[in-house]
Design brief:
Elements: H1 10-21, E1 36-39, E2 45-53, H2 54-57, E3 64-71, H3 77-81, E4 86-88, E5 97-101, H4 108-130
Antiparallel strand pairs: 1-2, 2-3, 3-5, 4-5
Length: about 130
């Protein structure tokens, strides 16, 4: 894995969620140490950082790519998927989740905004259940 100079990297995502939400990445799969779950205090996931081969993402090739899979309202999917750097969610429900490449193609501030959106969607669901 090579950290990118521009745009968001996995390290930048991890630093952001630690400072903003107190989240530390969890690595639940021993055989996939580069996969990390971002978990809301209520226990729900609001993001997953993965290192996935291009052909599995639908972008072709055998090179691996860092991605962030995040929760997103379905009405935003068409606009985001029309842009470079966004993909259908890998290994998650494609109705409620999308993926963004962490390769510099999407500015870091925008990726942070998507993390915030995903966290707020999970937080909103947690509040409704408690409430």
């Amino acid at each position: 894995m090579i950290e990118q100079i521009c745009g968001a990297t996995r390290k930048e995502v991890f630093d952001y969620v630690a400072s903003e939400y107190g989240t530390q990445p969890e690595h639940p799969w021993m055989d996939l140490p580069e996969y990390a779950v971002l978990r809301h205090p209520g226990g729900k996931w609001y993001g997953v950082v993965m290192y996935v081969r291009g052909d599995r993402l639908g972008i072709g090739g055998e090179d691996f790519h860092d991605i962030l899979v995040f929760k997103c309202p379905p009405e935003l999917h068409p606009a985001l998927l029309a842009r470079k750097g966004f993909l259908p969610a890998y290994h998650m429900n494609k109705l409620n989740w999308l993926a963004v490449l962490l390769d510099g193609s999407v500015p870091a501030d925008e990726v942070k905004g998507l993390v915030d959106l995903s966290y707020s969607l999970v937080d909103e669901r947690a509040r409704r259940r408690r409430g």
